[in-house]
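[User]
Um, tokens okay?
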Amino acid sequence: MIFKVRMGAGLLEWADAYVFRSSVKPAGLAVLAGLFLYFWVQHALWGRTLGKRLLGVRVIAVRTGGRLGAGRTALRTLVFPLLVFVPDVGLWCLLAGGLWMLLDPEGRVLHDRWLGAAVVRDRVKNAQLQTWPDIICVILLTRMLTMTLDGCG
């Protein structure tokens, strides 16, 4: 079996074949919208997702040290999915953006530098599920993954 990495077409071929030329299932769109909302709402409101909370990090605006804001958080949330779909250069841009962190004096990735964001350490005492938003996010994410797996079978 030969494995080949295609960096040329991106996921546009996949999207064309499975999304645009076939019937779009509402459950699939709901999962995509749910995943976007999972990251966007938590980053906009608290500066971190459940995973970032457990790791003790948060996303902040470099200039103010506070939250990034809804607009810039939405852009940050969309960078990865949108770049994956750009033919020929999308995956290379993602790779370059991630490697940029090694050259950046502050250790920030390229999209965070452009958006004026930074991921910083923010230790939380007893990093556990402590608040109702964390519990709701876990329940919703579990439900979305269950719906996705049920749709694949």
